[in-house]
Amino acid sequence: AQSVTQLDSQVPVFEEAPVELRCNYSSSVSVYLFWYVQYPNQGLQLLLKYLSGSTLVKGINGFEAEFNKSQTSFHLRKPSVHISDTAEYFCAVSDPRQAGTALIFGKGTTLSVSS
Amino acid sequence: KAGVTQTPRYLIKTRGQQVTLSCSPISGHRSVSWYQQTPGQGLQFLFEYFSETQRNKGNFPGRFSGRQFSNSRSEMNVSTLELGDSALYLCASSLGQRQPQHFGDGTRLSIL
């Protein structure tokens, strides 16, 4: 069975500093990987996805992630964060072999950006 | 283009009652998935419907059920509510497997 581990439950950073949110997955087969962001009282918004191809994936709002198959990781990075990036971030996987689109999520990382 | 619409946004019920939540997907999306979000368990997959058929199901008791209509709108039903069913229920729609899921803002269900 697949699982996702987000290594940090909370990440506090100062505005304009770089940030990395870590995600590791467990799967014996290839997976699709996603990062979502959730702002208070809202649903989830897709930041970026990895399906295949280039291991460096660029997403919205200046975020990017790198797929590392040997380390089964998909860490999210941003070179300079803003106050508005304060939110909860979720890493998720899905199984390309299944017909559907079911996602397995990590527990989430709360990013707190302060001035 | 309108997003995923979930109704109602907030709901308060008591133990033992049943509840029905509604989800209208983005126009043209035939896949609708439901997720439960709680502080303790995080985001958990409930089930997915595609063309009125349940395609995948998560590990939830039979009290949780759903259906999808011919216009792709979906409903989720929870019977015999328990305190532990208090959660944010999120609906997501998608064009297909390699396409992203688009989430609604959720229905926050509180059980008293």
Summarize the topology:
The complex is a heterodimer of chains A (115) and B (112).
Chain A: E1 3-6, E2 10-14, E3 19-21, E4 23-26, E5 32-38, E6 44-50, E7 56-58, E8 64-68, E9 73-78, E10 87-94, E11 104-105, E12 109-114
Parallel strand pairs in A: 2-12
Antiparallel strand pairs in A: 1-4, 3-9, 5-6, 5-10, 7-8, 8-9, 10-11, 10-12
Chain B: E1 5-7, E2 10-13, E3 19-24, E4 31-38, E5 42-50, E6 53-57, E7 64-68, E8 74-78, E9 87-94, E10 102-103, E11 107-111
Parallel strand pairs in B: 2-11
Antiparallel strand pairs in B: 1-3, 3-8, 4-5, 4-9, 5-6, 7-8, 9-10, 9-11
Features:
heterodimer, A: 115 residues, 6-stranded mixed beta sheet, 4-stranded antiparallel beta sheet, B: mainly beta, 7-stranded mixed beta sheet, globular
Would you kindly provide a written description of the structure presented here, covering whatever features stand out?
The complex is a heterodimer of chains A (115) and B (112). Chain A has 115 residues and is mostly beta strands. Helix content of chain A is 0%, strand content 52%. Chain A contains no helices and twelve strands. In chain A, the strands form three sheets. In chain A, strands 2, 5, 6, 10, 11 and 12 form a six-stranded mixed β-sheet that branches. In chain B, strands 2, 4, 5, 6, 9, 10 and 11 form a seven-stranded mixed β-sheet that branches. In chain B, a hairpin with a 2-residue loop joins strand 5 and strand 6. Helix content of chain B is 0%, strand content 54%. The N and C termini of chain B lie far apart (37 Å). Chain B is globular and about 35 Å long. By secondary structure, chain B is mainly β. At the A-B interface, strand 5, strand 6, strand 10 and strand 11 of A face strand 4, strand 5, strand 9 and strand 10 of B.
Number of strands of chain A: 12
Low-confidence stretches of chain B: none
**What Rg of chain A is obtained from the alpha carbons, in whole angstroms?**
14 Å
- The helical percent of chain B reads under 10%
Number of helices of chain B: 0
Poorly predicted regions of chain A are: none
**N- and C-termini, Cα separation of chain A:** 41 Å
Number of strands of chain B: 11
